[in-house]
Specification:
By secondary structure, the chain is of the alpha+beta class. It has a four-stranded antiparallel β-sheet, with helices on one face. It starts with a helix and ends with a helix. The chain folds into two domains: about 50 residues, no CATH class; about 130 residues, no CATH class. α2 runs antiparallel to α3 and α3 packs antiparallel against α4. It contains five helices and four strands; from the N terminus they run αββββαααα.
Length: about 190
């Protein structure tokens, strides 16, 4: 595959070029590379076609920027959700997970950093990183609901636990969307 990528960089869209590492004639039409990889008994050529666009993974600085955008947008979305919920149901502020905006921001920023690092790793080392990341995100989101309903916390009500769980959903939706869109934009 490395030779094919090198070949894609060497080809001129209008010329036929012989590449020494492949020892075959190749031609490029638009963004497609065609090369003869096998000659049949009639002297004809069996052609292989590949896409010559070489995509590069986002680098560390790009992942940091994507992660920061995800963190800021998710923190704002979760804080607005928390503020609105407390404005509608003031008694839920007695539930410890909902009584502090700074704690909410921290507990949104940390999962964002972990999600960004995980997605960057998946993009670098796994095929289909977006699909894998989405599956992992759904599982983690579902697991995050458990403490909201099961941990013995003073002033826990179904409403307060549901608001906290909804805040997890808001955070996950924003984080996953920003990370996936940011990744896809850098891959174009």
């Amino acid at each position: 595959m490395k030779n094919l990528r090198r070949l894609g960089r060497l080809l001129n869209p209008t010329k036929v070029v012989e590449h020494p590492s492949l020892l075959h004639y190749a031609s490029c039409i638009g963004e497609v590379i065609c090369f003869c990889d096998n000659y049949n008994a009639n002297g004809g050529c069996e052609m292989t076609m590949i896409n010559s666009q070489i995509t590069t993974q986002p680098d560390r600085n790009q992942w940091i920027r994507i992660g920061l955008v995800a963190a800021v947008t998710s923190i704002l979305a979760v804080l607005m959700t928390q503020w609105l919920a407390i404005a509608i149901w003031p008694d839920i502020v007695l539930f410890k997970p909902l009584d502090s905006y700074p704690r909410t921001a921290i507990f949104t920023a940390i999962p964002t950093a972990v999600a960004t690092a995980l997605f960057a790793w998946l993009a670098a080392y796994k095929p289909q990183p977006v699909q894998t990341f989405l599956k992992i995100s759904v599982v983690v989101l579902l697991l995050s609901f458990i403490p909201d309903y099961l941990l013995p916390v003073p002033h826990k009500t179904v409403l307060a636990s549901s608001v906290a769980a909804f805040m997890h959903l808001v955070a996950a939706a924003v984080i996953v969307t920003v990370l996936v869109v940011g990744y896809r934009q850098r891959m174009e």
